[in-house]
Amino acid sequence: MFIAFLITAGLMFVSLFIFVVATYSGFFLPLVDYIIVAGVIVFIVGYILEEIKCFKERRKGG
Q1: Are 15 and 36 in contact (CB under 8 A)?
Q2: Please, are residues 2 and 49 in contact by the beta-carbon 8 Å criterion?
Q3: Handedness of CA 39, 42, 44, 50 (dihedral sign)
Q4: Fewer CB atoms < 10 Å away: N or C end of the chain?
Q5: Contact, 12 vs 38, CB < 8 A?
Q6: Helix/strand/coil (H, E, C) string of the chain?
Q7: What is the model's pTM?
Q8: How many Å apart are CA 48 and CA 40, to the nearest integer?
Q9: Helices 2-25 & 30-61, crossing angle to 10 degrees?
Q10: 1-51 pLDDT, tens per residue?
Q11: How far apart are CA 5 and CA 14, in angstroms?
Q12: What is the CA 33 to chain-centroid distance, rounded?
């Protein structure tokens, strides 16, 4: 799951970088929008899955 977190963080960083560059240069493509949305969705889904996993482990342990 840590690998998935690294991938998610990498996607977020890349999408943020693209967003900043696109905004700064005033050159905004729909493709960039899709990349940002995809990055955010992957981040949210990964976060939720991680929380569910931790919650299950806590219930099992305690």
Answers
A1: yes
A2: no
A3: negative
A4: C
A5: no
A6: CHHHHHHHHHHHHHHHHHHHHHHHHCCCCHHHHHHHHHHHHHHHHHHHHHHHHHHHHHHHHC
A7: 0.44
A8: 12
A9: 150
A10: 677 777 777 777 887 787 777 777 666 667 777 777 788 888 888 888 888
A11: 14
A12: 14
Residue 26 dihedral angles phi and psi, to the nearest 5°: 70, 20
Q: Which of 38, 44, 33 shows the shortest CA–CA distance to 5?
A: 44
Q: Which residue has the higher pLDDT, 28 or 56?
A: 56
- Look at the chain and report how many structural domains it folds into: 1
CA distance 42 to 45: 5
